[in-house]
Amino acid sequence: MRAIIIDDELKAQRVLQAILTEHCVGVEVVDIVGNVPDALKSIHQNQPDVLFLDIEMPGYTGFQLLDLLPDSTYQVIFTTAHSDYALQAFEVAAVDYLLKPIRIQKLQQAVERAKKNVLNGTSSQESLVTLKTNMKSSIIQRLALPVNDGLIFVDVRSVIMVEAEGAYTRIFLDYTDQPLLISKSIKEVESALELHPDFFRPHRSYLINLQHIVKYQKSDGGTIFLKKSLHSPIAKDRKDEFQQRISNMKI
Q: 142-249 falls under which CATH superfamily?
């Protein structure tokens, strides 16, 4: 795999190059640049398979570089010392990132995923679009959901309900009758959406989108009815918070 390192810090450039050379077989660093204009020239000249891209650089950010590049099958691995929200945005978009100081194992894992994508001709463009969408907002807007044969990208607003199924999770969407079974726990999904005001966990096995509620029935312990004939129980210790959350919806 032909790689370009894009980072304005000389020490960071040298450390990453050294780790790649020693611990990542099959990766050839064809160029190292320290700013976006030089990166654009190098990408055009060298046609890399993967970019190791720092986010914060003088003049232009790593995100602005991606805006200037045409769609391609190159892979992008971010190197960053960014905020917690940014890291969450990377994760829910299924974009690889390396938190500085870089750990060898994390780098190797990211490189292996990039190699597979290069071999399969898989573009990272949809993941990058999802990442940029989420980074422009204070809450997660899009999710990359891992399914058997890859990823499905969905708008958070289309999620009606999330239901736990062991180590897996079912995602019910408003535009299809077929739920998605993903290899993430409901806790991981809740963590990704924890800052989103529309999501509430009424029960350990359910996470719901408040915007899709059709009816709340208080009898028989309490049941929340949602679109597409879906429903969720509500635990006793969650009822007060639920009442507070829906209070602004009342007329």
A: LytTr DNA-binding domain (2.40.50.1020)
